Amino acid sequence: MAENRNYYDALGVKRDATADDIKKSFRKLAAKYHPDAGGDEQKFKEVSEAYTTLSDPQKRKEYDQLLMFGGIPGAGFGGARAGRGGYTYTNASGADWSDIFTNIRSGDGAFSGFDFSSFFGDQQQGGRPRSSRGRDLTLTVTVSAEEGFGGTQRKVSYTIPSTGERQTLSVKVPAGAVDGGKLRYPGRGEYGSMGGERGDLVVTTKVEEHPLFKRDGADVRMELPVSVYEAALGVTVEVPTPSGSKVRVKIPAGTQDGKTIRLRGLGVADVKHKGAVGALYVTVKVQVPTRLSAKEREAFESLRQLDEREYRKDVDRYGA
To answer: Cα–Cα distance between 181 and 203 in angstroms, integer?
Structure first.
């Protein structure tokens, strides 16, 4: 058995494996390595020993406690073979790790008769070791603007710092996801100590910007360029929406630059309020031509001569 392996490694399961996972893996490996079937007797003994401990809730709990403190140095299973091949390891207080592990296998309890104060120091309170929750782990998932509008899924992998395990899960990014939004996955973070619960995995969504649509929570804003002629005479324009569909928007005659039209229910899903959808705000931007043909100039000159409106009366009244 290679150095620094543990019972979980022997069975090929993760630290958070269920009892069913452990049983299924053991049956598969036992059939493969059973001596009567021509398998490897030593490996059969190893997986059998691993299953004996991990299939018992109390023994598994005590074994996990040992692993939390780095396992048993000098043992191939992270403690499993202590005392078998002449291995003996004691800590600074003289506690024999091989005795502790023998207690686990025999069912007497890993720390039967063991003085915790000599090893764990101030982790003890009232004569009993304190459990602590594992810390939360974080990662960031980047999605496109369109994926943020409609939602998507991402398969992510991350490492548990204390064990080096690689874990994967499918992150469901909800429709209407916002830049900087957080998704919490309980029990997928760092392992707790002394039987404490695992921390959470917190996934932050980074939503890329869209070249046309600008997010304002569940509301979406966009600018719609129209010509000076269209603004003056009125026009109906077909515009896109965040969902990918199109909608016809009527620009009334005489519409001024900067006018905003609200289209209810055409924004994106509101992640804070289930079933709610924001609005799409269309702001009109009147485009004045910078170059005129001779005919256009002539037509504008004619229109100017006909126009008798006083556009600057509120300014002119302050003149001398």
So the answer is: 8
Q: DSSP for the chain?
A: --TT--HHHHHT--TT--HHHHHHHHHHHHHHH-GGGT--HHHHHHHHHHHHHHTSHHHHHHHHHHHHTT--TT-TTSSTTTTTSS---B-TT--BHHHHHHHHHHTS-TTTT--THHHHGGGEETTEEPPBPPPPEEEEEEE-HHHHHH-EEEEEEEE-TTT--EEEEEEEEPTT--TT-EEEETT-SSPPBTTPPP--EEEEEEEPPPSS-EEETTEEEEEEEEEHHHHHH-EEEEEE-TTS-EEEEEE-TTPPTT-EEEETT-S-B-TTSTT-B--EEEEEEEE--S---HHHHHHHHHHHHH----TTHHHHTT--
**Among the listed residues 193, 198, 197, 199, the one whose alpha carbon sits nearest the alpha carbon of residue 120:** 193
Using a 10 angstrom Cβ sphere, with 0-12 exposed, 13-18 middle and 19 or more buried, the burial of residue 137 is buried
Q: Per-residue pLDDT for 157 more than 90?
A: yes
Question: Are the C-beta atoms of residues 255 and 245 closer than 8 Å to each other?
Answer: no
pLDDT tens readout for residues 246-292 = 999 999 999 999 999 999 999 999 998 999 999 999 999 999 999 99
Cα–Cα distance for residue pair 261/249, rounded to 1 Å: 9
Query: What Cα–Cα distance (Å) separates residue 41 from each residue in 29, 32, 34, 48, 80?
Result: 12, 10, 6, 10, 17
Torsion angle of the four alpha carbons 196, 198, 199, 204, in this order, in degrees rounded to the nearest 10: 180
Confidence of residue 207 (pLDDT cuts 50, 70, 90): very high
Displacement of CA 47 from its chain's centroid (Å): 34
Contact 154, 143 (CB under 8 A): yes
Distance separating alpha carbons of residues 149 and 210, to the nearest angstrom: 10
Q: What is the pLDDT of residues 130-154, one digit of tens each?
A: 778 999 999 999 999 999 999 999 9
